[in-house]
Amino acid sequence: MARSGAVLGVGVIAAVGAGGMASAQDRPAAPISVPDVPDLKELPEMAGKLLGVVEEESPAPAASREASEPVNDPASAPALAQNAADAGEALRARILQQAEHQQDSAEEAARESEAKAAEDAHRKTAAEETAKAKAQEQAEENQQAPQAGDKAEGKAADAAGPETQKPAAPSRSEHGSYVLPVGSYTLTAGFGQSGNMWSANHTGEDFAAPTGTPVKAVGGGTITQAGWAGAYGYRIVLTQDDGTELWFCHLSSMVVTSGKVAAGDVIGRVGATGNVTGPHLHLEVRPGGGGPVDPLPWLRDKGLQP
Questions:
Q1: What pTM value is reported for the model?
Q2: Where does the chain hold its CATH 2.70.70.10 domain(s)?
Q3: Residues 206, 186: Cα–Cα separation, whole Å
Q4: Tens digit of each residue's pLDDT (9 = 90 or more) over 240-252
Q5: What fold is seen in the domain 162-301?
Q6: Beta-strand (E) ranges in 82-220?
């Protein structure tokens, strides 16, 4: 209706301008075009369209839109995805690197363990071979020693006379309290015999036997000395209850070096240590710990037959 009024006013002004002032009676009435008035039911829809046009022609300020609308920049999404992918790849690479390092460390430890085991096995084998070689050498020496001893003792026996070479006799007295010092032997140099092997006459009795032959305690008593004794080599001194000392000399090894022993106990082994020409046992008997006496009569007095 406002727009219709405006059209009417424009028509009046135009008429006045064209013809000057005129009265309504002089001129015919100007035609007036009034648009159709819309139905009242269509007013809300038209008002909405008009308002929409106004909103489209007058957009809201950018700052207002930014404040009211959420930011959703499509261009930034690929960058964020790429950054996430790069971070994941870096983490994966670090994990793989750590796993590879741990595997290398485990393999290195395994190699070191295998090398150590091989070295230990080599050392053990070398030690066993060395022990076998020493045992073989000792066995060969034991085989050669009786031959050399037999020759040397045979010469001494020839010089002393055939009566000193006697076969083995019963080694234990009938009372069982005394035994011979070795089971199988040959008597060689006797008591009081002279020779260039001694600075004075021979002070004991020699029982020739292979190296390693067991040496037994002749009677019960206490071992009071055991060790190296110069020309006597390795020597064991057995002191009986009455003070008599029995010397076992030129031993290759000493089995018992102290304490009480009984008749027949193995206390050492025949050897060739000290001033000797071959393996044998040198036995001395010293009553009361004094000077030596002939061992053979002393042994016979104990019921033995050397």
A1: 0.45
A2: 162-301
A3: 8
A4: 999 999 999 999 9
A5: Glucose Permease (Domain IIA) (2.70.70)
A6: 186-187, 205-208, 214-216
